[in-house]
Specification:
Number of strands: 3
Low-confidence stretches: 328-333
Oligomer: single chain
Distance between the termini: 70 Å
Radius of gyration: 30 Å
Shape: elongated
Largest sheet: 3 strands, antiparallel
Helix content: 55-70%
Number of helices: 17
Order of helices and strands: EEEHHHHHHHHHHHHHHHHH
């Protein structure tokens, strides 16, 4: 092993086999770490990849360093020198912990940026309908799809600009999630704030008029439309409930993640996005989606209110269970447990969007301006409240026996009685 050749392995390949040797320790042709050939490649090729992986090479290097240190002390007679070296190693490890921690953070940030870039590239190629659907997913709280929609509007012909705005308004006037109505405000706010001109056409009253109309409706929970008003409140409670339901499995999720992190490297864990936050948020999305689908397609406000009160009943059952809570990183916090009480997407998030853009106030009507002047506490008190359950309302378990919320009520009711 020539000192100028800093190889850890020698890999010899011919037409029949691949041989790996320890560049420092191997003494001859048969002194191999691994031989991979046609006869054993089903098993040996996996080991071959492991040997040549960066992690294994680094592990080999560190082992050699330790062996070298042991060699230097094999003839030492002064224990104090070993103690001194021990303290030096401890200092180095302490410093290296900060380096490794920084590396991990930088790797995570670089991966996040790469994922963001891939998301933007995907959205650039997506048709308008897919952008609209992406803006209608409650857990997508970052404005990638909305920003792409803005770019499409800016780069369109005049008639198409109006058409794209009208698509937002039409979607808002359906049983869409509250987050879609929030993104619609964001899109129009950004266009007005950046002074993007959109000339009105006959069926379109102009972006400023439509903008103020949606703001007014968001602030009142679309009270003039009984069905949409009911669905907005129903959206809040399904998201709130999803968090409570998912937290029943918190310990199992946490155990699974802990075991997974022991099996896989830190790099693999980061790449797979196996964090408590990401897993729980995906869980929220799945559970809230199941509850939402129970009544979201209904055109009857009374039926949707039945769904709301069933969820309310389920919420009461869940209040009897003990929960293990955990802290989110701020950027991942979705506030689901506060929806409909001290936070929501129609009232408080709409206000935050309006306050975000400095040039918007000249486009707002007097009612919106007056709401923005309120303090945070005064404003939160104004969040519209859901319809109260009638005194004579009977739990309609039989009527909605095929709905997920009723199935959950029956399951948890039995569990609660057993406890």
């Amino acid at each position: 092993n020539h000192p100028e050749v800093k190889s850890y392995y020698l890999v010899l390949i011919n037409g029949w086999e691949i041989r790996i040797y320890d560049a420092k320790e191997s003494t001859g042709w048969e002194d191999t770490l691994l031989v991979c050939n046609q006869g054993n490649c089903d098993t040996s090729f996996i080991r071959l990849k492991e040997h040549l992986s960066s992690n294994n090479i680094i592990k080999t290097l560190r082992k050699r360093i330790i062996n070298s240190i042991e060699d230097t002390f094999s003839i030492e007679i002064e224990e104090i020198r070993l103690d001194q070296f021990h303290h030096e190693i401890e200092r180095s490890i302490s410093n290296l912990k900060e380096v490794v921690s920084k590396n991990s953070r930088e790797f995570q940030l670089a991966l996040d940026q790469d994922i963001d870039n891939q998301t933007m590239i995907r959205l650039e190629k997506s048709p308008i309908e897919e952008l609209i659907e992406e803006m209608n997913v409650p857990i997508f709280d970052r404005p990638f799809a909305a920003n792409e929609y803005i770019k499409r509007i800016i780069n369109s012909e005049e008639n198409e600009k109006n058409n794209l705005i009208m698509k937002l308004i039409q979607k808002c006037n359906t049983n869409s999630h509250t987050i879609f109505k929030m993104w619609s405000v964001y899109i129009m706010a950004k266009l007005l704030n950046d002074d993007i001109t959109i000339k009105p056409i006959s069926e379109f009253g102009g972006i400023q008029k439509e903008f103020n109309d949606i703001i007014r409706k968001n602030f009142t929970y679309w009270e003039e439309n009984e069905t949409i008003n009911a669905i907005n409140h129903f959206d809040n409670i399904t998201l709130r409930l999803s968090r409570r339901i998912c937290h029943l499995q918190f310990e199992n999720v946490n155990k699974y993640l802990s075991e997974t992190k022991e099996i896989f490297s830190r790099e693999d864990v980061i790449k797979s996005n196996l964090t408590l936050v990401s897993v729980m948020v995906q869980c929220y999305n799945s559970v809230s989606g199941l509850l939402w689908n129970d009544f979201a397609n209904s055109s009857s406000p009374n039926e949707i209110w039945d769904g709301y009160w069933l969820c309310q009943y389920l919420e009461k059952i869940l209040s009897n269970f003990t929960y293990n809570n955990f802290s989110f990183q701020e950027r991942d916090l979705l506030f689901f447990e506060l929806y409909g009480s001290s936070f929501d997407l129609l009232f408080t998030a709409t206000r935050r969007i309006l306050n975000k853009f400095s040039n918007l106030h000249v486009f707002l009507d007097d009612h919106s301006k007056s709401l923005l002047r309120l303090s945070e506490n005064e404003f939160i008190k104004g969040i519209p409240r859901p319809r109260s359950k009638p005194i004579q309302w009977d739990l309609p378990l039989e009527k909605y026996k095929d709905r997920k919320v009723v199935e959950l009520i029956k399951i948890l009711h039995s569990k609660d009685e057993l406890n």
